[in-house]
Specification:
single chain, alpha/beta, binds flavin mononucleotide
Length: 384
């Protein structure tokens, strides 16, 4: 299998499965507990159908949108995800460059393997920094100030990860960060010599944004789950979130909002956006899917705050359905990480091209000239 066999996101997933050692692939691919929510996130898009209009002169269409104050060429951007150097030795460099080339926004995790400063120098494209609140409160101020200096455009605070989800695949595969050659993982690394060589003979694994602040941050050496449970602050509350919103003072989203009640509170503390998300099914298994919650939340707060749909997106039509319900844009994680693992920057560029082409073609087939024309009249839910 190679890149020319990758026609859609699922093909990239299969390719990544071949290219990556099993602990790494399964860390991207897996969810929590029984992975019910993980599956549901995508399946829920199938409960409704799009209703096209014909003869609408779609010779010129515009699929761009503006989200968190940034214009993006198409209404899908890269959710912040941790540790890109695990999936490809070029790490966040590859992802940032691909996003820049394709004209969309790149989300950078607190737990990135490239520093805020490096990313700032690398790309002028729209950059969203994702904040986790650690027990060490000084870290929050430090990260926000560094993002300001590095000219990041917007920030989000992830609020669904006060403890780590129960990711049983990681226990089974022996996933650690940085990866360790253990008896259980040895065979898998040996069967993927190219990944193994590139990983161990390139820049040392580190959580670059945390390295100066916490020894634990630079080298976890157990599991990411242990890191979250030891370092993240479970006492995080609305006051802390409000502090971050005010401290940043620019476009700010809460990531991981799932209820109308919390969406309203996000407005009260001054957020400009919410990302409806359950962390891609990696946290609370059995929670509803973002798409299933979207209409209710848009109806309650859609005129006061930007609503972003995060999770489960695998096709251009999924993006159209979310926009028809009132989302401003969608974001995705696993999709571009599979492409990163499969083929680095080239892979991420290609998946973004494919998703953009799907959105463009679907808009034409829907008879829509601009994303503003996607509304509730274009979508109908099935009665079981
Ligand atoms: C491997 C991996 C690492 C992730 N790391 C983070 C992270 O550091 N911070 C965060 O807020 N979300 C993180 N997420 C969640 C994504 O931002 C996003 O919410 C999720 O991937 C969306 O679902 P999707 O994968 O179905 O597109 C991660 C997801 C994956 C798959």
């Amino acid at each position: 299998m190679n890149l020319k066999d990758c026609h859609n996101l699922e093909d990239f997933r299969k390719f990544a499965k071949k290219k990556l050692p099993s602990p790494i692939f399964n860390y991207i691919d897996g969810g929590s507990d029984d992975e019910v929510t993980l599956k549901r996130n995508t399946h829920s898009f199938n409960n409704c159908d799009l209703i096209p209009n014909v003869l609408s002169d779609v010779s010129n269409i515009d699929i761009s949108t503006t989200v968190l104050g940034q214009k993006i060429n198409f209404p899908l951007f890269l959710s912040p995800t941790a540790m890109h150097r695990l999936y490809h030795h070029h790490g966040e460099h590859a992802t940032a460059k691909a996003a820049e080339k394709m004209g969309t926004m790149f989300g950078i995790s607190t737990m990135a393997t490239t520093s805020i400063e490096e990313i700032g120098k690398l790309t002028n494209a729209p950059k969203l920094f994702q904040l986790y609140i650690h027990k060490d409160k000084g870290l929050t101020d430090n990260l926000i100030e560094r993002c300001r200096k590095a000219k990041f455009n917007s920030m989000c605070l992830t609020v669904d990860t006060v403890v780590a989800g129960n990711r049983e695949r990681d226990y089974r595969t022996g996933f650690t960060t940085p990866p360790k050659l253990t008896l259980s993982s040895l065979l898998s690394f040996a069967l993927h010599p190219s990944w193994t060589f590139n990983h161990f003979f390139n820049k040392k694994f580190e959580l670059s944004n945390l390295i100066h602040m916490t020894q634990k941050g630079s080298s976890i050496e157990r599991s990411v789950i242990d890191y979250i449970n030891e370092q993240f602050d479970p006492s995080m509350n609305w006051k802390d979130a409000e502090y971050c919103v005010k401290k940043w003072g620019g476009p700010f989203a809460l990531k991981g909002i799932m209820s109308v009640e919390d969406a309203k509170k996000a407005i009260d503390i001054g957020c400009t956006a919410i990302m409806i998300s359950n962390h891609g099914g990696r946290q609370l298994d059995g929670s509803r899917s973002p798409f299933d919650q979207l209409a209710e939340i848009v109806d309650a707060v859609g005129d006061k705050i930007e609503v972003i749909l995060d999770g489960g997106v695998r096709r251009g039509t999924h993006v159209l359905k979310a926009l028809a319900l009132g989302a401003k844009a969608c974001s995705f994680g696993k999709g571009y990480l599979f492409a990163l693992g499969a083929a680095g920057q080239q892979g991420v560029e290609l998946i973004l091209q494919k998703m953009k082409a799907e959105i463009n073609r679907d808009m034409i087939l829907m008879g829509c000239k601009s994303v503003k024309e996607l509304n509730r009249s274009k979508i109908k839910f099935r009665k079981n």
